[in-house]
C-alpha cells in the first residue's frame, strides 16, 4: 500500500456523513477490462490454446492469481502460475504504454472529489507496477492512498483491500462509498461493510440493500455519493 495521506487528512471528514471514496481501477475508472482479456487471449494463443469467450465473465475483476490459475486449469496449458502472471503483466503494460482511456464520467468525478478535498483511494486487484503505470495517465494527485492486489494478504473478493483503505484514512467502512464494476469487487466492498455504487462493465450486477447500480459514472457525483451514505445510514 502506498499513501500520501498527511496526518491532518485522515480525520478531515470525521464530522461528515461521507468519510472517504474508494474506487476500483480496471473497468471502473479506466476502460481496460478488454485490454486484459486481449492480453490473456494473446498469451494463451502463444501457448497453443484458444480461450473461450464464456471464460471472460469468470476471470473479470478477479485477482491475477485466481484468473490466471483458472485459465491454466481450463486450458491445461503447460506453464507455471508465476511465469504466467509475469507474461500477463508484461503484455498489459505494453498495451497501456501510450496511456489508457478513461471511462465516461471518470475524469469529471475525480476532479470533483479532488476539488472538495474528499479523501479518495484507488483499490485494485492489479499489481503495484500496473497501478503506477495507469496512474501516470489518470493522475497520481487524485489519490491520497492506493492499495494494490500484490500488497495485501488476501485480495478481492476478500474485504481486506477495502478494510485496508478505510483504515488508512481512519474512516469507518460504513461511511465509505465504494465504486466497483464487477461482482468480485462488489463482494469485497460489501464484506468490508462499505456502501457500494456498482457500474457493471462486463457482467450484470443486481441492485441490493446498501448498493446502487448505475449505467455509467456520468450518473455519479459528490451529492449522489453523500446521499448513498445518508439514505441508509
Automatic annotation (TrEMBL):
Gene3D superfamilies: HAD superfamily/HAD-like, Putative phosphatase, domain 2
SUPFAM superfamilies documented for this protein: HAD-like
Domain of life, source organism: Bacteria
NCBIfam families cross-referenced by the UniProt entry: HAD-SF-IA-v3
PANTHER family, A to Z: 2-DEOXYGLUCOSE-6-PHOSPHATE PHOSPHATASE 2, PSEUDOURIDINE-5'-PHOSPHATASE
Protein name: HAD family phosphatase
Species this chain originates from: Streptomyces cavourensis
